[in-house]
Write a structure and sequence with these properties.
Number of strands: 6
Structural class: alpha+beta
CATH architecture: 3-Layer(aba) Sandwich
Number of domains: 1
Order of helices and strands: HHEHEEHHEEE
Oligomer: single chain
Low-confidence stretches: 1-6
Radius of gyration: 15 Å
Distance between the termini: 31 Å
Largest sheet: 6 strands, antiparallel
Number of helices: 5
Length: 157
């Protein structure tokens, strides 16, 4: 269940938007003052899902043989706005062009999956004791989970 602390601050408002299921990449673009890319992107084929990831991504449905992990910084015109990590299951993404873009380019996960009708199911969105917004969510295509993402908004300088 998603949780947010208070509703007075911009951080709390941001956490509340994430808790309601807004795609993180759309929010990041708004905060960055324009389109975002994933800078310092690292991607790797992972040997397997962790037990937690397998449960959340419903590995029993099949299509979980190939596992890709991505991490990096979401950056836009105003600079870096978030640190992101994700694990996704390419075989659950029916569009080969989207699969290729996720592997070969700096496109953020939500930007690539958005046109396919992706929606976010918030697992948690909160403001920690230092006022930082953190969130975690599943990205689904239809009712099928394709990715698990975690985000940390960076302080605006």
């Amino acid at each position: 269940m998603a949780s947010t602390a208070g509703t007075d601050s911009p951080a709390s408002s941001t956490a509340a938007r994430l808790a309601r299921g807004e795609l993180f990449s759309a929010l990041a673009a708004e905060l960055a003052g324009g389109p975002v890319v994933c800078a310092r992107l690292r991607r790797e084929i992972a040997p397997a899902l962790s037990p937690r990831e397998a449960c959340l991504l419903e590995a029993h449905r099949g299509g979980s043989g190939l596992v890709v992990r991505r991490s990096g910084l979401l950056r836009g015109p105003a600079g870096a706005v978030a640190r992101v990590t994700a694990v996704y299951l390419p075989t659950r993404i029916g569009d080969p062009g989207v699969r290729r873009a996720l592997w070969e380019s700096d496109v953020p996960l939500g930007v690539a999956l958005g046109p396919l009708g992706a929606r976010r199911e918030s697992l948690r969105a909160w403001v920690n004791g230092r006022g930082e917004v953190r969130s975690a969510g599943l990205l689904l295509l239809g009712d099928v989970p394709v990715a698990l993402a975690e985000e940390e908004l960076l302080p605006v300088l």
